[in-house]
Amino acid sequence: MSSIFSKIIAREIPCYKVAEDQNHIAFLDVNPNAKGHTLCVPKKEVDKLFDLDAQTYSELMEFSRTVALGLRKAVPCKRIGMTVIGLEVPHVHVHLIPLKDMKDATFTKKELLDEIQMTELAQHIATEIK
């Protein structure tokens, strides 16, 4: 069964995309811990991070790094946190979270942004990704 991320990749459901290449897509988390919380997802549907082959793993980390550098320019924060949990969606994904304090990394604090704010933020982050 396809994950929600596979449906986003297939354009069956929309997302607030910030970056994409042949093998990956990055989009804003719709239930963000902090403004700019972004998910980096390989287009190949694999459930667990360490089940990726070495090349796919390395490419995902490099893609995530590129997105994080742009995110850091677009969203004021102390640093960009990165985590991989993967319990809610059975498709590998990297969380990139602009951190101002540790509460932003706990997945208990959520930021509320409306559709216009999400669209504008995604566009702004996309312009900062090189």
Secondary structure elements and their pairing?
Elements: H1 4-9, E1 17-20, E2 24-28, E3 38-42, H2 54-74, E4 79-83, E5 94-99, H3 115-128
Antiparallel strand pairs: 1-2, 2-3, 3-5, 4-5
Helix pairs in contact: 2-3
Describe this structure in words.
The chain has helices at 4-9, 54-74, 115-128, and strands at 17-20, 24-28, 38-42, 79-83, 94-99. The protein has 130 residues and is α+β, with helices and mostly antiparallel strands. Strands 1-2-3-5-4 form a five-stranded antiparallel sheet. α2 (54-74) crosses α3 (115-128). The chain starts with a helix and ends with a helix.
- The helix/strand class is alpha+beta
Top CATH class: Alpha Beta
What characteristic shape results from the CA principal axes? globular
Please identify, by name, the CATH architecture: 2-Layer Sandwich
Quaternary organisation: single chain
Mean pLDDT: 95
Distance between the termini: 34 Å
How many independent structural domains?
1
Strand order of the biggest β-sheet: 1-2-3-5-4
Helix count from the secondary structure assignment: 3
CATH superfamily: HIT-like
Q: CATH fold name, please? A: HIT family, subunit A
Low-confidence stretches: none
Helix and strand pattern: HEEEHEEH
Beta-strand residue percentage = 15-25%
Largest sheet: 5 strands, antiparallel
β-strand number: 5
Give the radius of gyration: 14 Å
The percent of residues in helical segments reads: 25-40%
